[in-house]
From TrEMBL:
Taxonomic superkingdom: Eukaryota
Xref: Gene3D superfamilies: P-loop containing nucleotide triphosphate hydrolases (3.40.50.300)
SUPFAM superfamilies listed in its UniProt record: P-loop containing nucleoside triphosphate hydrolases
Matches recorded under InterPro entries: GTP-bd, P-loop_NTPase
Pfam families recorded: MMR_HSR1 (PF01926)
Coiled coil: none
Biased composition (Polar residues): 211-226
Spans annotated as Disordered: 204-232
Species in which this protein is naturally found: Mycena sanguinolenta
GO molecular function list: GTP binding
Protein name: G domain-containing protein
């Protein structure tokens, strides 16, 4: 190196070896993976199925024009009693491990979980197996809880007549607090045992509505104001 040359920035070296951060998006069928991709990355390539089974090829690379440093792989949703799609996602993840160049590896997993209702489980068997698989491979997992607005709407449906007389802003705040409390009671305890292998997750709601939460936590990207509530 000559006197006129400066040390090459570390980021240049990293980007030369690995120009994009590769994310595998997995979850049960109908959980909202495609909607999440559309909303978070502004990508229209993912078809929003609105509760129906979306079609995708896990090998396809999805790159947003807004941020070319990320590449996504959208897996088919896991179906109860059908292990084919789960095995396909698992094999894809294993094939993108340490045996391939860094640029081709899966660098993180987005595990989409629908906020449970009516006493259903938070994590199904496939979700738990993917968490364990990622932990063994030392790949970070972002757990994204989706469809929080359904929980919020359920809170609205049981408001008393007196509570319904509150001003709109107070009513929204009341429902938000109750939905948050219900969410923490239902979803956080099962998540805590996976905490060592799960990093801090993003909250995709407007910053004004975000609150501090413990590590390994993410709520739905959906905004409270999008809920088809009784107060609207």
């Amino acid at each position: 190196m000559t006197e006129t040359q400066s040390p090459r920035p570390t980021t240049d070296g990293i980007l030369a070896e690995c120009p994009r951060f590769r994310v595998l998006v997995v979850g049960r069928s109908g959980v909202g993976k495609s909607s999440l991709i559309n909303h978070a990355f502004g990508i229209d390539l993912a078809t929003v199925a609105h509760g129906r089974r979306g079609k995708c090829n896990i090998e396809d690379e999805i790159i947003s024009e807004h941020n070319a440093y990320f590449v996504l792989h959208d897996s088919m949703g896991f179906e109860p009693g059908n292990t084919k799609e789960f095995e396909t996602a698992k094999e894809f993840f294993r094939s993108r491990g340490k045996r391939v160049p860094l640029k081709d590896r899966v660098h993180a997993i987005w595990l989409c979980i629908k906020v449970p209702h009516a006493g259903s489980r938070v994590f199904e068997t496939g979700d738990e197996e993917f968490l364990k698989l990622a932990a063994t491979a030392k790949v970070p997992v972002v757990v994204v809880f989706t469809q929080f607005d359904i929980l919020y709407s359920g809170i609205e449906m049981v408001l008393t007549d007196e509570e319904m007389k509150l001003p709109a802003d107070q009513l929204r705040r009341l429902c938000s607090e109750r939905a948050e409390n219900e969410f923490e009671k239902i979803c956080l305890p099962p998540l805590q045992k996976y905490r060592p292998c799960t990093p801090t997750c993003a909250d995709f709601r407007p910053r004004s509505e975000q609150q501090s939460r413990p590590p390994c936590f993410s709520r739905s990207y959906q905004n409270y104001s999008e809920s088809p509530g009784r107060h609207r």
